[in-house]
Amino acid sequence: MEITLDKKNNTEGLIKIKLTEGDYQPNVEEKVKDYARKANIKGFRQGKVPTGVIRKMFGKSILVDEINHLLSHKLSDYIKENNLKILGEPLPNQEKALTIDWDVQKNFEFEYQIGMVDDFPYELSSKVKVPSYPIEVDQKTIDETVSDLKKRFGKVNYPEVSEADDNLFGPLKTAEGDFAREQSFIAVEKVEKKEQKKFIGAKKGDAIEFDIDKAFGDDNLKAQVLGLSPEEAKAVKGKYILTVETISRTEPAELNIELFDRVFGKDVVTDEAGFIAKIKETIGENYKRESDHFLEHHIEDHFVANTSINLPDDFLKAWLKSSSQGQVTDEVLGQEFEAYKRGLKWDLVKNRIADDNKITVEADEVRAKAKDLIISQFGGHAFAEQLGDKLDAIADNYLQNENGQNFMKLYNQLRSEKILKYIREHITVQEKKVTVDEFKKIVEEHKH
After folding, report:
1. Fewer CB within 10 Å: N-end or C-end of the chain?
2. Is the per-residue pLDDT at 294 higher than 90?
3. How far apart are CA 33 and CA 49, in angstroms?
């Protein structure tokens, strides 16, 4: 057997594997004998089938299977032994493979195109400066949250006539009479102020005609009313008619122990001051997640923009098309290849940082993460106490499901979290505290 690498450049190469009869024939003969022992063929007793019959009936498929098995292992071993940093998977030369005469040939030559990545420098130090925008929890947000919670856990009534805080339900049609939605829902307070009067004073059976754009300046609200995506709703214009079938009004809940228990669980908070403090804490945790996610996006932006990595574009395009079962076309590549390259580049940087700094994830950490996930989804720590030792078995079962994909998903999540934590600790994060409205504006500007 002879294996060689012909490097076209630093990122592309061709691995050639030459096989002689001595490389594969001993294993082929063993498999022929094994087939003869196990085969159940009409006219022969089991275990007494002549090897000549087996060769005639199955010889070619045994040969092909054995050579494919041999190639797979030897190719993988060669890549590992030579520390080749390949991207994707080796691409076999299918045209050359199709010229093989399996009935006659004794010696074979196979070719595999590979894409590689060179070593690359990156900077991870205090000289790297990345902005961060922690969100301050202001009184306005707290007041709005308290108001929303009082409504959410309030008592629902069904009045005869609608008012400004009511909700209207019923079928929605275009002005021409076509059904836009069998059952729609409009919160009067979400309607633009100038248009709200059309929805106030309505009774069951009333038909309210309105201009969809004038009533809802926000595409997300328009989408909810129409039952469409925001992108689809954006293009919708014209007049619509809502026929009122139901009017609902929520009487806000009182700030008392019953509300506190319903929102946060029994006896978690016992008075109004504790309730407000817990709301502020919860909002702060949610804001921190948003702020941290935006910081991670800035970190990614920095390393992608400031790390020079040569990638084998032609190979990657060929590999993506080959491995996608026809889903990746030239058109798809034209639209999405740059985004794919960006993601690949960021993965390469993260992997290098993890390798250079020995950042690892242990199986016990993945198991603990799975237990936390299960606890959060099924009722918190009270649920965990009820389960006791059974929680370990539930976590193990979850990790084994989906052919181990759940394990890999949590493993990759933990690994990414550790890498980003390490990066944050070794760069300069420039914090600027902002309000939630300022944060939303910064995020929107960053998108553009």
Report:
1. C
2. yes
3. 9
Q: Is this prediction's pTM over 0.90?
A: no
Tens-digit pLDDT profile for residues 405-438: 999 999 999 999 999 999 999 999 999 999 998 9
Contacts with 213 (C-beta within 8 Å, 6 or more apart), sequence order:
222, 237
| CATH architecture for the domain at 155-251 | Roll (3.10)
Q: Could you give the C-alpha distances from 181 to 170, 227, 228, in angstroms and in order?
A: 9, 7, 10
378-402 pLDDT, tens digit each: 766 556 667 777 888 889 999 998 8
């493979």: which residue's tokens?
97
Give Dmax over CA atoms of the chain in angstroms: 94
Say which CATH superfamily domain 2-116 falls into: Trigger factor ribosome-binding domain (3.30.70.1050)
Sign of CA dihedral 82, 83, 84, 89: positive
Nearest alpha carbon to residue 191 among 212, 170, 215: 215
User: Which amino acid would we find at residue 440?
Assistant: K
For the chain, which residues make up each domain, given as ranges? Answer: 2-116, 155-251
Residues 299 and 424: beta-carbon distance below 8 Å: yes
Helix axis angle, 390-400 to 380-387, nearest 10°: 100
